[in-house]
Structure formats: C-alpha cells, structure tokens
Specification:
The complex is a heterodimer of chains A (292) and B (540). With 292 residues, chain A is α/β, with parallel strands linked by helices. Chain A contains ten helices and ten strands. Chain B folds into four domains: 91 residues; 151 residues, no CATH class; 94 residues, C2 domain (Immunoglobulin-like, Sandwich); 160 residues, Rossmann fold. Chain B has twelve helices and 30 strands. Chain B has a seven-stranded mixed beta sheet, with helices on both faces. The chains are: A alpha/beta (292), B alpha/beta (540). At the A-B interface, strand 8, strand 9 and helix 9 of A face strand 1 and helix 2 of B.
C-alpha cells in the first residue's frame, strides 16, 4: 500500500504503469469483484455460496424454491463514461505533487478500471474552454490514447468549470457517467447550475474536488506576497492574521458544494493530494456501491 | 554646553532605513491557486500592518536622531508667556488731562506715589500702567490678548468714582508773606463729596482742612506762609471709596526773599524798570554810584572810575557795557551780530535755551573776567568778575531787550547772583530724602538702561523718554511694570502694537535642557518602538 502513496507513485513516470499499479493495488485490497456495482442490468440467478453477502439473497425465490439463490448482474459493457479533467493553472498548485498530477493519475486509474470491465471511456480536458475531447471507446487499446493525451497536458489557462460544462453539454449525446476532476475554484452556484444542466440530460455525475492540504490548512507564516496562479494578481499579506478568516471562508466554500450537490444526487468527493489513490478509489467505489 | 560635533553622526539614520529595505526584500512570494478568499477587510488589515512597519521605521530613525541630539545637548528655545491676570487701567482724571501734554516726561507713578504703585504691583504681580498716550495701543493689546496663549486679560477698570487732583498752581512765594496755592480737583461721583485736604511738607502738615467738593471741577485755594527755602510739598485727598491714582499732588515750592534791585543809570532806565516791575523785586533808580545799595544793582554805561568803585563794593551787580569808548573791562569794536551758544551753568536751561538762534548786536568786547557764555563767533557774551556779571550790551540801547526772551534771561541773572537758582541736584541732594525700597531701573524701547531721577518723596522722573514705545520698569531683575510713553500725549494717532511687539512685551524666551529633554523623547520613542515590534511580531 505504501506504493500507492501519491508522492511515491509520482516517481513512476509512465502514466499507464501508474494506473496499473493503482488498480492492481486497489484490487488486491478488495475481497469482491470490483466490477460489481457498475452494471445495473440483471442477468441470472446462481446458487448461494458461503461468503456471499446475505443481502444479495433473493428471498422471493427462496420462498418458492426453498433454496438460496443470489442475483447475478450482467456486466454493463455499453456504459459510456467521460473523465472531465480541469487543466487550469490553479490545478498546478502543490509542492510534492500538484493537484493536476494527482487528478491525472486518478483519472488514468479510473480509465483503466472502467475499460477493464468493458465500459467505454472518453476524456475531456478543459480550463475555461474545452481543450481536448476524446469520445468514449471500450477497446483496450483506447487506454493508450487516453493516457497519452493525459500525459501530454500540463496546467495552463484560467478556470471556468461552468463555462466548460456548458460547452460540453451538446457534445455528449448518449447518457453517460461524467467524472469531474477539478479544484472547483469558482463560484459554487455557477458550477452546480452547469452540472444540473448536464443532469437534466440524464447524465450521471461524480465530482472529485482535488485540493492541496495547504489550501485547506493555510499553514503559511510570515508576511508574504501571494500571487494568484491564474490571473497573476498579487497581494501582500500576513497569513497568520488571515488564517482564521481564510479557513472560515474556505470551509463555507466547501460546505456550499456539499450542500449544493446532495439534493441533486451528485456524488461529491473531496480529495486532497496527500490521500493514497487506492483510498480515494475505495471511498469512491464504496459510495457507488451504497448508492447502487 | 553644547557638543555640535555629535551632529556629524546624523548620517547614521540610513542604518534603520537599510534594515527596513532589507527586511522588505525578504518577503516570501507564494503562488496560490486563488485569491478569492482574501477579502477587503483583511487587505485593510495588511495596510495597517504595513503602516506599522513604516511607523516603526520612523520611530527608529527618531530614536537615533534624538539620541544624537541628546549627546549634542542641543538647547531648544521656546516662547513662554507671563500670565497677565489683571491689567490695571488707569482711567483717572490725570490721564485725560491735557496738562500732561506739557510735560516731556512721564512721572512714575504719575501723581500717586511709589508706595501705592508698589502696592498695586504687589497685588497684581505684573501690571500695566497705561497712560492716555498709548490708549490706542492698549486697546489693541486687549483686543489681541485672546490670541496669545498665556495672556489672560481680565480687564479691571478702577472704580468709576474718584476724587482726583488734576492740577495746581502756586503764586510767587516770598519770605514773610502769605501766598496762595490753588488746586483743581475733579469730583467724579454723582454727588457732593466731603473730604479732607492735607498739604504736607514731608511729614509736617502745613495746612489741613475739610472741604466739600461739588460734582465736576472744583477750584480750591490754601493760604500759606513759609520761611525762605525749597520745599517738596504734597497735597493729599482722603477718599477711601475711590481709587488711589491722583489723590496726591506733588510740587516743589521755592520760597524766596524779595530782591532790592538798584539800577544805576544816567538816564531813566525805562526798559529795565519795565522788565523788573513785578512782585519779585523792589526796584529803585539812582544816577550816582554812591547811591547804589540793596541786594544787587544794574549799572549801564558807566565811566571807568565808577566801574572801579562798584567792582570793589559789597553789592553784587550786573555791568552793561555797550561801547561808547573803551572801558575798564571792554573795548569798543565795530558793530557785530551773532547769536549766543546754548551751554551755560546759569540756572534752569529752560530759560536760556530760548536765547539760541536770536541774533544779538554788540559793539564792545569784554576783555576781563571769567567768560561763562559765548557768542557763536567766540566773543564773550557774559563774564564774571568776583560776584559781578558783565554784559557787552546795554538793555536801554540794544534791541535784545525788546525780545521776549530778555525778561527770563534777566531773572536768571538775578537768581544766579542772589543764589536763588533751583538746581535739581540741590533740590534732591539737600532737601528731599528718598525712602522707598522700590528703586526702579528703566529700560527704554532701544534697550538702554538708566535710573530715573528721584524727584521728591517716592517720586521719580523719567527724563529720557524721547523714544516712543514701551518702557520696562525693572526692580532688580524682575519686571514690575510697563509704561507706554509717547513724547507728546496730545498726539492721538498712535501705532498699534504689532504681534511681535506683544510677544516681545509679554513673552520671554526660555530653553529646554537639551540632553534631558531629548532623553525623555528617546525613552518615549524606544517604548513606542518596542510596542510596535511586539505587535508586529505577534502578528507574524
């Protein structure tokens, strides 16, 4: 598991290898099929074996046959998913590992995982506009294309998630699972509104808010000049005296996302770049499992 | 003692400036995803933080500068003001009297006497005695007074009512005869006042009577008989309800003997007789030298023998030698015309200074005796041999005797011979004794210091008052009063006092002790810098 720590894994240059390591490591930690939960269509019943979860037992069938059967779902090979990755400058923030690098690895891992269960995966890279758009494919060879695109991009430009999503909405025709990786440093109302627009088109949405621990804790000391990574505006400030104000304002910012996404059934995950990838993936999958 | 060499250390102030600049350069630059969470209030806080750093720099510089100043022991001049709690306004009748205009000097303390003046100055530590002459200037002080810190003027006029002696006149006083002293007294009350009038010579009461004074001006007289001599007299009024200015009137009285004057002349000495026909003399005309007697004689155009007889006689006299021929003490010369020069020891110069500029014709030149007055061309005008005076002119024949100056000149000559001349020094040295502890020194507007001449009991005369302006009355080193003087009080247009003059009069320059003052400031700066540093550190 030590290997899956972001700072350790960052030493592995090849993104596909990183993704494999993540997924393999992640799979090793699981006791059940990772694919479970991604598919939603029932295929057949099979006899219950020791170790299967009890809650999967079909009690109605037991009532008729007096035998234990559990439901078996058809793996959904035609699930279309999009990985939406924010590549704006603010995503370049991070000392050991930037938010962008973290999000990229996470996205690559998910792409690997999804493709492994025969789902089709697409990729969108954006800042305030869409910079790359790769339509979803389910072929294994597609992974190479995805990872190649992810590897080539580095953070640039100003953030506007909402603007990018509005641009994306007409491009995605088929009902899809959209997984957004961004720091969401924008007015929450705008982003929530733009996601709702996507939701209205029956798309499923999962949001990973990638943040650096320093953004949350604001641990700086001594009078400093802060430079906005996106618009280069500077301000001289004393961080210690500002910390209380800052954290309060930042907490409210995160809360507004949590509270904004929940009523619309949008899965929201706050991930900091110091969390091991597998943990992030586990949390994500567990939540998906619960929801399914 | 100052050490200005320490000021060379002033360039050291660059040290804290450099420190400040270096500490500014040390500021970290942090790239941050967004500044959305830095809002205005906090930015204001940052401004205050920066201001504090700047303040700290200033305090450090000040600390350094003041330390250097302290080492240099620089003295700091500043103006302070004496507190004039009360201004005494002399609105007494004498201040309104035009009689004052006749004098060239102000008498301090006017007619009230030094003790009263002293009393006032003791009661009001620094008072101002304002005369009519500077009334305008004074009202300006009152008007401007509020502008000057430290001058709190609460004008305190003297009580409205008063009995004031505004003038007096004495007829000629002769030994063995009664004479009348007349006084003008002003009753400013709206009713008749009964008061006691006392005429004193030192502590001896010469006359004392109760009088009733009607409203307004009262002319009173007092009949006196005194023996020969000089007297310093004072007339006093008792008025407990009124104020003390002008309730005393000082004057000097010369009681003299009536002189028997004998005029020796061939013909009737018309002009001399006319000039000497008054209360002061008993005049007799004789034509023979042997008939000359009395207290003194006038001899006009005598023969040499007659002159010789008279010059050796006991009776003092005046020889008027207008040259028909050469005589014993003069030679006939062609007629000359010349004025006389002013300087003379004859009596009061007031009489003689009028001679200046008057051309006098003469045709004889005095050849003997001690010359005591000269013509401007150097010829003798008046000479003395023993107790006789010789003039190169004859009153009966010379047009000088028709000039108005002639009679006072004649009186001066007679006074000189009969030793009746009033010399101020004789008056003060022999007749009047000063007893007041108040011995003022006067500093005129030009800074010249002199002592006023004692004149009578507790009385001084300021003689050197040619300069218009404020005169300071000092007693030892303390300021006891200020006197506004104008050479002629009848002038109404007086320049207002300027701000500088008021500051000069009321203000005085003092010095802070440089070292202790700057050390105190240094300490305050240090405390402030520590406070600022602590708050800045606490924030960091």
């Amino acid at each position: 598991m030590e290997l899956l720590k972001p700072e350790v894994l960052e030493k592995v240059r090849a993104l596909n290898l990183r993704a494999k390591i993540v997924v393999k490591g992640f799979l090793t930690g699981l006791h059940e099929s990772p694919y479970h939960g991604f598919s939603l269509e029932f295929k057949q019943h099979r006899p219950y074996y020791q170790g299967d979860p009890i809650n999967k037992i079909n009690w109605k069938l037991y009532a008729r046959t007096e035998r234990f059967y559990i439901k078996k779902y058809q793996a959904e090979t035609n699930l279309s998913s999009f990985l939406l990755l924010d590549k704006s400058n603010s995503m370049g923030f991070g000392e050991k590992i930037s938010k962008f690098h973290y999000a990229r690895t996470l996205a690559a891992s998910l792409a690997y995982l999804l493709l492994k269960q025969n789902d089709s995966v697409g990729l969108v890279l954006f800042d305030s506009d869409i910079k790359s758009f790769i339509p979803p494919r389910s072929r294994t060879s597609h992974l190479k294309h995805l990872l190649g695109t992810l590897s080539k991009n580095e953070p640039s430009g100003e953030t506007s998630v909402s603007s990018a999503l509005f641009q994306l909405a007409p491009l995605i025709k088929k009902r899809s699972l959209c997984i957004l990786f961004s720091d969401l440093l924008e007015e929450p109302e705008k982003i929530i509104k733009s996601i709702n627009v996507m939701k209205a088109k029956k798309h499923e949405f999962i949001v990973f808010q990638i943040l650096d621990k320093k953004e949350l804790d604001f641990p700086y000391r001594g009078e400093s000049i802060f430079k906005d990574m996106e618009n280069s505006r500077t301000i001289q400030a004393d961080p210690e005296s500002l910390r209380v104000f800052y954290k309060d304002r930042f907490d409210r910012f995160i809360s507004s996302y949590k509270n904004g996404f929940a009523p619309h059934h949008i899965d929201y995950f706050l991930v900091t770049t110091d969390i091991p990838y597998d943990k992030a993936l586990t949390e994500f999958l567990e939540k998906r499992k619960r929801l399914s | 003692m100052s050490f200005p060499a320490f000021l060379l250390l002033l360039p050291l102030i660059v040290v804290p400036i450099l420190m400040h600049l270096i500490s500014r350069k040390k500021l970290k630059k942090i790239e941050f995803p967004t500044l959305l969470f830095f809002v205005k209030n906090e930015v204001k806080f940052i401004r205050w933080f920066r201001l504090k750093r700047l303040l700290l720099l200033l305090v450090r510089i000040s600390l350094l500068v003041f330390l250097i100043f302290a080492a240099a022991n620089l003295k700091i001049p500043f103006k302070t003001f004496d507190l004039f709690e009360t201004v005494i306004v002399d609105n007494s009748p004498s201040m309104r009297s035009s009689e004052m205009g006749k004098k060239n000097a102000f008498i301090v303390p006017d007619y009230s006497g030094i003790p009263q003046f002293s009393l006032f100055l003791k009661k009001y530590p620094i008072g101002i005695l304002i005369t009519d002459a500077q009334k305008n200037g004074f009202s300006e002080i009152l008007r401007k007074g509020e502008k000057f810190p430290g001058i709190r003027i609460s004008r305190k006029d003297l009580p409205p009512g008063n009995l004031g002696i505004v003038g007096g006149s004495l007829g000629p006083a002769f030994e063995g005869e009664n004479f009348i002293a007349k006084f003008k007294i002003l009753n400013e009350y709206n009713e008749k006042k009964r008061t006691l009038l006392v005429l004193k010579s030192k502590n001896r009461i010469i006359d004392k009577k109760e009088v009733v004074l009607k409203e307004g001006e009262n002319l009173l007289s007092s009949e006196i008989k005194l023996s020969k001599g000089l007297y310093a007299l004072s007339l006093e009024l008792e008025d407990k309800e009124g104020f003390i200015f002008d309730n005393k009137f000082y004057f000097v009285l010369n009681v003299r003997k009536k002189e028997n004057v004998c005029i020796l002349s061939d013909s009737f000495p018309e002009r001399l007789m006319a000039a000497l026909s008054n209360d002061y003399f008993k005049v007799r005309w004789v034509s023979e030298p042997s008939d000359v007697d009395g207290d003194l004689f006038f001899a006009c155009d005598l023969e040499e023998q007659d002159i010789s007889d008279l010059i050796h006689g006991k009776v003092p006299g005046i020889f008027c030698l207008q040259g028909k021929t050469n005589s014993l003490f003069s030679n006939k010369i062609p007629e000359k015309i010349s004025p006389v020069i002013e300087e003379s020891f004859l009596g009061d110069p007031l009489y003689l200074k009028n001679l200046k500029g008057i051309p006098i014709r003469y045709n004889s030149i005095i050849t003997e005796g001690e010359t005591i007055m000269y013509f401007e061309n150097g010829d003798p005008f008046l000479s003395r041999i023993k107790n006789h005076l010789i003039l190169p002119i004859s009153p009966e024949k010379n047009d000088f005797s028709l000039h108005p100056v002639f009679i006072p000149f004649l009186f001066s000559l007679i006074d000189f011979l009969s030793d009746n001349t009033i010399h101020a020094n004789v008056l003060s040295d022999e007749k009047i004794v000063m007893y007041s502890e108040f011995r003022p020194v006067i500093i005129d507007p030009g800074g010249f210091e002199y002592k006023p001449r004692p004149m009578g009991e507790s009385r001084y005369i300021f003689e050197e008052t040619e300069r218009v302006g404020i005169y300071r009355v000092m007693n030892r080193s303390s300021l006891r009063g200020l006197i506004a003087v104008n050479t002629h009080p009848s002038e109404s247009e007086i320049e207002s006092l300027s701000d500088e003059e008021i500051t000069y009069i009321f203000g005085k320059q003092s010095f802070f002790n440089g070292t202790s003052f700057f050390l105190v400031v240094c300490f305050l700066c240090f405390a402030l810098s520590v406070l600022l540093e602590r708050t800045i550190l606490r924030v960091q």
